[in-house]
Every structure is written in structure tokens, then in C-alpha cells.
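Example for tutorial group B:
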């Protein structure tokens, strides 16, 4: 598990290797990740967008930008948490992800970014 706190918002990530398969004559490696977003600040906040960079061991980089997370734009009161699970495909058995969430503070109406710490993606069969 990796964790990081930015502006009172704690991000924790746990990863899993889901398996491999062929797609369009290329080997694909499936990974899952569970993110816990915990509001440790004194203000209510809302996550309204995400920005991911997904890297694999073959130097491929995929950028994912979108609204919310898995179709939701969670509002977190002080002490609240939001947990979701998602996944990605890589063309190699190793990789990493990092990025940030765009959030708004309801007390100050200011927008801010919360860092998503870099986390590794590793196929269990390839770990020595």
C-alpha cells in the first residue's frame, strides 16, 4: 500500500494482478487498484476530476483525464472516506501509475489538486 496526504486529503492505494490474456494478437496484463480517499481536513470537499499517467515497462505512457471517479463525484465531509476499485491494462508485466484529483473546497470555494502517489503494478509470476 502507498499513501500520501495533500491539503488534508489522504490517498491510499492497494494493487492486485488480475491475470493476462491475448487481445488483438498482443499479450495484455490486467491490474486492479483500490483507492481510499479520506478527508482529514476541517472542510467539506468534492472530487470533480481525475488525471492519471499509466506507464509500462516498455516506455508506453497513457494519459487518462476525466470527470470524477468511476462515474461519481464524491463529496467528503470532514472524517469521511470514499473507496473505489478500478483497473488498467498494460502491455508488459510491470508498470506504475500516478496522477492527481481535482477537488473543490466548499468552505473557501477554491479548487485544488490532490496528488495520487506513484504505485507499482507487478504481475505476481514475474516477481523474483
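The residue assignment follows.
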Amino acid at each position: 500500500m502507498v499513501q500520501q496526504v495533500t491539503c488534508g486529503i489522504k490517498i491510499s492505494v492497494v494493487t492486485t494482478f488480475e491475470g493476462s490474456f491475448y487481445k488483438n494478437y498482443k499479450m495484455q496484463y490486467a491490474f486492479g487498484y483500490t483507492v481510499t480517499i479520506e478527508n482529514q481536513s476541517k472542510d467539506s470537499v468534492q472530487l470533480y476530476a481525475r488525471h492519471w499517467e499509466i506507464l509500462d515497462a516498455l516506455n508506453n505512457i497513457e494519459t487518462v483525464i476525466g470527470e470524477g471517479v468511476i462515474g461519481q463525484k464524491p463529496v467528503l465531509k470532514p472524517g469521511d472516506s470514499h473507496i473505489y476499485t478500478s483497473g488498467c491494462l498494460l502491455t508488459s508485466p510491470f508498470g506504475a501509475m500516478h496522477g492527481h484529483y481535482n477537488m473543490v473546497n466548499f468552505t473557501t470555494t477554491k479548487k485544488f489538486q490532490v496528488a495520487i502517489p506513484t504505485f507499482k503494478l507487478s504481475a505476481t509470476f514475474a516477481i523474483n
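The beta strands are 2-6, 9-23, 26-39, 45-56, 61-67, 75-76, 81-90, 94-105, 111-122. Compare this with the pattern of hydrophobic and polar residues in the output above.
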